[in-house]
Amino acid sequence: MTEHDTKNIATRNIMLHYPKRLADKPIISTLIKKYDIIVNITRARIDQDEEGTLVIEISGLKKNIDAGLAYLDDLGITFKPVSKVIKRIDERCTHCSACIVVCPTKALAVRDRESMVVDFIEDRCIGCGLCIPACPYTAMEMSE
Ligand code: SF4
Ligand code: SF4
User: Fold this and answer.
1) In 3D, which of 14, 128, 129 has the Cα closest to residue 65?
2) How far apart are the C-alpha atoms of 11 and 27, rounded to whole Å?
3) Ligand 1 mean position to 116 CA, how many Å?
4) 52-73 pLDDT tens trace
5) What is the pLDDT of residue 16?
6) Topology of 3-81 in CATH?
7) For 74-131, what is each residue's pLDDT tens digit?
8) Is pLDDT at 39 greater than 90 in this prediction?
9) Which DSSP state fits 105?
10) What is the C-alpha separation between 143 and 28, in angstroms, rounded?
11) Which of 1, 31, 59, 139 could connect to 92 by a Cys-Cys bridge, CB 3.0–4.6 Å?
């Protein structure tokens, strides 16, 4: 790789949703083989209806990443950038449970019916950020 190439390397974290109709399509291997992109799958989840949610870190030449993202777009896969870390400011959380319905991975979940405590289970979090606007107490935050 030349010095010029090194300067044009980019890394991005994105979350992508792909519909059931594409479940068998070799999307990740196409990004790797056809677009010469390094893909690191951070989180993966398949819903009961077989819709998929992936958080991936992609790195490669910027032009290849742009081409790879255009490929995803052409397939009808929606994606958006994500930050790596979602945190909860526990002192602000009132355990109101408003965030639970928006969390696609059950990273925010009621511990039990007796306590009704809402737990934030960090290793389930895919960093989608949906809980941030859903929380009326601004307890959920995103940071790089
Ligand atoms: S919406 Fe906010 S305050 Fe309510 S349970 Fe979730 S994090 Fe806590
Ligand atoms: S960012 Fe929030 S809504 Fe998204 S997976 Fe993590 S806890 Fe759930």
Assistant:
1) 14
2) 18
3) 12
4) 888 888 999 999 999 999 999 9
5) 87
6) Alpha-Beta Plaits (3.30.70)
7) 999 988 887 657 899 999 999 999 999 999 888 999 999 999 999 999 878 877 888 9
8) yes
9) T
10) 27
11) 139
pLDDT value, residue 35: 97
Ligand with smallest separation from the Cα of 93 = 1
Which of 15, 16, 47, 103 is the pocket-test mutation for ligand 2 (most atoms within 8 Å of CB)?
103
Identical fold, 3-81 and 85-143:
yes
- What residue type is 2 in one-letter code? T
Domain ranges of the chain: 3-81, 85-143
> Rounded distance, CA 96 to CA 135, Å?
9
Q: Please give the structure tokens belonging to residue 44.
A: 């993966």
- Which pTM does this prediction carry? 0.62
Q: Which residues contact 56 (CB under 8 A, 6 or more apart)?
A: 13, 14, 16, 28, 39, 40, 41, 42
Fold of 85-143: Alpha-Beta Plaits (3.30.70)
